[in-house]
Design a protein that fits this description.
It is a single chain. The protein is α/β, with parallel strands linked by helices. The protein contains 10 helices and 6 strands; from the N terminus they run E-H-E-H-E-H-E-H-E-H-E-H-H-H-H-H. Helix 2 runs parallel beside helix 3 and helix 7 packs across helix 10. The protein is elongated, with a radius of gyration of 18 Å.
């Protein structure tokens, strides 16, 4: 039996996916979690073969959970499950050590197939998303610029934003100007919308 951990902050989705997976003869859901930190603790407690984690969760998102499990429990392979997959999300997931990436709109059997594949040591990527990745534009922003833009998206006073990223308010303004130039937009809000749409932040 392949032991599976499910982590999703929406109980209805978590329970529905668990019910579907438990119908598979070779899969068993050994733990469920409603957030990122709870997912890591459940993985350490139950030692699943595969962790299926939602991209967007409280306290730690799926990328952070994947990176932590790769470090703390390398025997556990991670699949990111998301309702809003973008090519940039896929890139980030693979960089974080995820072995699979499945969208919630995939056919019912796709997740079970993905679990089996990653358990065997292979990778599984949603085919439509993989095709999109081949033609998606690369992000023109550096990691630091993305960090600043994500902080700007969270809002707050200039001083609070600067503290979050460990820079002065003036340096944050300079980064914001550089970001808008690179993205060819005239306002911060446009830059934030574009980056969120592309999945860069």
């Amino acid at each position: 039996m392949i032991k599976v951990l499910l982590a999703d902050d929406e109980a209805l989705i978590r329970d529905a996916v668990a019910t579907l997976l438990d119908l598979e003869p070779d899969l068993t859901v050994v733990a469920r979690a409603g957030g990122g930190r709870a997912a890591i603790q459940a993985a350490l407690d139950h030692r699943p073969d595969v962790a299926v984690v939602d991209l967007d969760m409280p306290d730690l998102d799926g990328m952070a959970v994947s990176a932590e499990l790769v470090r703390a429990l390398p025997s556990c392979r991670v699949i990111i499950l998301t309702g809003r997959g973008r090519p940039a999300h896929l890139r980030r997931a693979l960089r974080a050590g995820a072995a699979g990436f499945v969208t919630k709109g995939a056919p019912a059997g796709a997740l079970a197939q993905a679990i089996r594949r990653v358990h065997e040591g292979a990778r599984y990527v949603d085919p439509e998303l993989a095709a999109e990745l081949l033609i998606a534009p690369d992000c023109p922003l550096t990691e630091r610029e993305l960090e600043v833009l994500a902080a700007l998206a969270q809002g707050g006073t200039p001083a609070a934003i600067a503290r979050r990223v460990g820079l002065s308010a003036g340096t944050v303004r300079n980064y914001a100007a550089a970001i808008m130039t690179k993205l060819e937009v005239s306002e911060r809000a446009e830059a934030i919308r574009l980056a969120q749409h592309q999945g860069w932040i």
